[in-house]
Specification:
The chain is of the alpha+beta class and about 400 residues long. It has 15 helices and ten strands. It has a domain of about 180 residues: Muramoyl-pentapeptide Carboxypeptidase, domain 2. About 30% of the residues are buried.
């Protein structure tokens, strides 16, 4: 075991704290560049996964920005992709590495920093969320079973579900918008991140030997900066496209008709809640069907004092019956409750109630998409609640009229 650097997460908390701190001090900036970035700190934690209003987003294949595979010669496995201009920039950087290694300008026999190879690129957040939701639902299934929870109707299931989520959802998100902002959603879901090694992120000793103290380290950091990439301080084989870097926008995004950071976000990404809410009822119905019993027995007291036992068969819902029995406002209120829990909202109870009421009014007058957008915009803002949704809507309309967006 290394006395200076952590080699796994199995060491004691005190040892890990001291060793991680020592590692942090060894990761020096190169030539006063600022592209070695701690993606666990501050707003960088959500990089590529929220927009300028802190609302969760996901990459979409649009008219200009699409997923593109990396060159076959630098792919560890087939089919690794990223956002097209990011892939172009990396392909060009990999070519530069190869030329410099052949010319003897850098060491040519390093495992990862002589010729660049892509080990990981874009990961589909929908697929990652689906896997995470399976994990969540399996845990809920065990809890419902262990606690003997039974229900006959959908709303009884919902009441029991909310009680369980209240206890865990702050740490383990349930909806996709919360998942995208959580530690469980990797930055590779943004399409902006690339990993050039398959090492263990918990092994600081390997980070030091293979990267930080590598003879090609300075060249690596400098070249990443030249091509518009940031280097992850704690996973140095992970590089992330800096969509604010002018050289990246000018040289690689502009051919796709993209020239600003705002255009990258606006044209390349969708708001996560739009896709998620369309499937919200289906997710809940699937969980209802997973947790409901075929039938169960209940005892009831008769007026005569006798006790009778009857068999209860939970209702079988199709999506059509579910939406007929429970209107859209029911599901909106349920969505809002869960989202308030997940964000560990700083809103007081009366503020939450007022926001829900205002959002439901907006749903009636402006439609579902508008109501969800403005709710998420308020919920995700990282500053204090300043008033009702009506105040916020007026503020938004003023900004729209001024041409701010």
């Amino acid at each position: 075991m290394s006395t200076r650097y952590a080699e796994s997460n199995e060491e004691s908390s005190k040892e890990l704290f001291n060793k991680r701190a020592y590692y942090r001090g060894q990761v020096k900036q190169v030539n006063n560049l600022s592209n070695i970035v701690d993606f666990n700190y501050g707003e960088k934690f959500w990089y590529g996964r929220v927009n300028q209003f802190w609302m969760p987003i996901r990459f979409k294949n649009g008219q200009f920005l699409k997923l593109k595979n990396f060159n076959k010669t630098i792919n560890r496995t087939e089919g690794i992709s990223g956002v097209n201009f990011v892939v172009d920039a990396f392909n060009a950087m990999a070519t530069q590495f190869k030329k410099c290694a052949m010319a003897g300008k850098i060491s040519s026999n390093q495992s990862f920093l002589s010729e660049l190879t892509v080990f990981k690129g874009y990961e589909d957040p929908l697929r990652k969320y689906s896997e995470f939701l399976d994990f969540q639902n399996a845990a809920l299934s065990r809890t419902f079973n262990n606690d003997g929870i039974k229900f006959e109707y959908f709303h009884e299931f919902v009441d029991a579900l909310l009680l369980k989520l209240t206890k865990v959802v702050g740490a383990y998100p349930y909806t996709m918008p919360a998942y995208v902002k959580s530690k469980f959603c990797p930055i590779t879901c943004s399409g902006l991140a690339i990993e050039i090694a398959d090492l263990d992120p918990a092994n600081d000793q390997e980070k030091i030997s293979e990267f930080i103290n590598n003879v090609n380290w300075d060249f690596y950091v400098n070249t990443c900066n030249d091509y518009g990439f940031m280097v992850d301080k704690f996973i140095p084989w992970r590089i992330v496209a800096d969509i604010g870097a002018q050289q990246l926008l000018d040289n690689y995004a502009r051919p796709y008709m993209i020239s600003t950071t705002g255009a990258v976000i606006g044209l390349g990404y969708d708001l996560t809640h739009i896709t998620y809410y369309r499937k919200f009822k289906f997710y809940l119905l699937n969980l209802y069907n997973r947790l409901k019993l075929r039938n169960y027995m209940v005892s009831e007291a008769c007026p005569s004092g006798a006790t009778i036992t009857k068999i209860v068969t939970p209702v079988n819902y199709s999506i059509q019956k579910l939406t007929a029995d429970y209107d859209e406002e029911y599901f909106l209120k349920l969505y809002f409750k869960i989202r308030f829990m997940e964000e560990q909202s700083h809103f007081e109870v009366h503020e939450q109630e007022r926001l829900v009421d205002d959002t439901l009014e907006l749903y009636q007058s402006g439609g579902l998409a508008r109501a969800l957008y403005d709710f998420e915009r308020i919920l995700n803002k990282p500053f204090d609640y300043r008033g009702s949704l009506s105040y916020y809507v007026k503020h938004m309309e003023a900004r729209r009229a001024a041409g701010e967006f």
